[in-house]
From TrEMBL:
UniProt keyword terms in alphabetical order: Plasmid, Signal
Record organism: Hymenobacter tibetensis
Matches recorded under InterPro entries: SusE
Pfam families according to UniProt: SusE
The name this protein goes by in its record: SusE domain-containing protein
Signal peptide (residue range): 1-19
Keyword 4Fe-4S: no
PROSITE patterns: PROKAR_LIPOPROTEIN
């Protein structure tokens, strides 16, 4: 019997392993795939009237691509303008389950944002083209077809900024953007601000991007651009409210803010505007009202306002509670929060501390962006 030396046996063993590895690599490197041959839904020339608040959605579906080695294929859905060729798609995303599913579900909100990227303006119709790429490793196969759909965008902006500021020569912060006054975010895409406006330029800006996006108010509409001018030639205080969801805006003049003294059913004192959403009066006398059952100290605040048509109205800002105990030095901050309430003489009133009777007090009303609307009473 022929004998082999240990070094020779070891060499043969290593050569065998390398050969087996090469065969395995050859199998693994076979990444050939077939392209997606048929798009199933939505149908060609589908029309969709977008309604983002409804949470409606559109499902994109297509036939399977096949890998030569029988392994899984991943899918990417591409969107482009009607005359685009997908070499630089305006938007792309993987399908469901990290690209393994042959369908993709996009909400109307998602499609509204994609339509905006494609240049389709709000309250307008436009066309969008879509297709699917199949891939395995470094191999990418475009589908053999694409489809065009028509989208009608609603009024409003596809994406609302996370924060909003007001700036310009007609505002309290002036033209220095670093001094721009912030809006309060009251709900998704909705902002409001109490501020004084004068003659000059008034712009709304989103500073979260490298280049600030600028908006302005045109009547009852919120518009993108730099054309904003002040609604007044003399200094006046306004409440501005803008809704990016439907591109709406309201501008209400605040004519006065008064301390409403419930037992006398009247404004006891008017608070001067101090600036940037703050009304304040100092060293004003307070005396509770003598009733048969005791001394009444209930109060809230009356805002007198006027809309753009020149019609005046009033709104009470009071407590979240219909009835309250007297305030104390240890009352929580939430006791003083201000919310709009009904036209009622007594309900939803606050109560002065007992120590305030026949004393002078400082009163502040804060309608500012850094927290809940609130007020403060300081007894002198």
């Amino acid at each position: 019997m022929k004998k082999f030396s240990w070094p020779l046996l070891l060499l043969l063993f290593v050569v065998g392993l390398l050969a087996a590895g090469c065969d395995k690599d050859d199998d693994e490197l076979n990444e050939t795939i077939t392209p997606v041959a048929n798009l199933l839904a939505p149908a060609a020339d589908t029309f969709v009237r977008l309604d983002p608040p409804s949470n409606a959605a559109v499902t994109f579906e297509w036939g399977q691509a096949r890998a030569a080695d029988g392994t899984v294929v991943q899918y990417e859905v591409l969107f482009d303008q009607e005359n685009g060729d997908f070499t630089k798609p305006i938007y792309s995303t993987t399908s469901g389950t990290n690209g393994l599913e042959t369908k993709l579900v996009l909400s109307h909100g998602d499609l509204n944002r994609i339509a905006s990227i494609a240049g389709i303006k709000s309250s307008s119709q436009g066309k969008l083209k879509w297709t699917v790429n199949a891939s395995k490793g470094l191999t990418v196969e475009p589908a053999t077809e694409s489809r065009v759909m028509t989208l009608e965008r609603p009024a409003g902006f596809a994406t609302a900024p996370p924060t909003l500021y007001i700036t310009g020569s007609g505002t309290e912060g002036g033209t220095n953007v670093s001094q721009a006054v912030p809006f309060k975010s009251v709900s998704a895409g909705v902002f409001e601000i109490y501020t004084r406006l004068s003659a000059g330029e008034v712009k709304l800006i989103d500073q979260t991007t490298g280049t600030p996006t600028t908006y302005y108010i045109d009547g009852a509409k919120l518009m993108e651009g730099n054309q904003g001018t002040s609604p007044t030639t003399t200094p006046k205080v306004y409440m501005l409210k803008v809704d990016f969801n439907n591109a709406a805006a309201t501008m209400t003049e605040i004519e006065s803010v008064g301390l409403w003294f419930a037992p006398q059913n009247k404004v006891l004192v008017t608070l001067p505007y101090a600036g940037k959403g703050l009304w304040k009066i100092e060293n004003t006398p307070i005396e509770f009202f003598q009733e048969s059952w005791g001394r009444d100290e209930r109060y809230k605040f009356l805002f007198t306002q006027k809309n753009t048509a020149g019609v005046s109205s009033k709104i009470y800002y009071g407590s979240t509670n219909a009835d309250n105990q007297r305030a104390t030095a240890s009352s929580p901050a939430s006791y003083f929060f201000l919310v709009p309430g009904p036209d009622s003489q007594y309900n939803y009133s606050f109560k002065f501390q007992t120590e305030a009777d026949k004393k002078n007090v400082d009163i502040s009303v804060k309608m500012q962006a850094d927290g809940p609307y609130t007020h403060q009473i300081v007894i002198r």
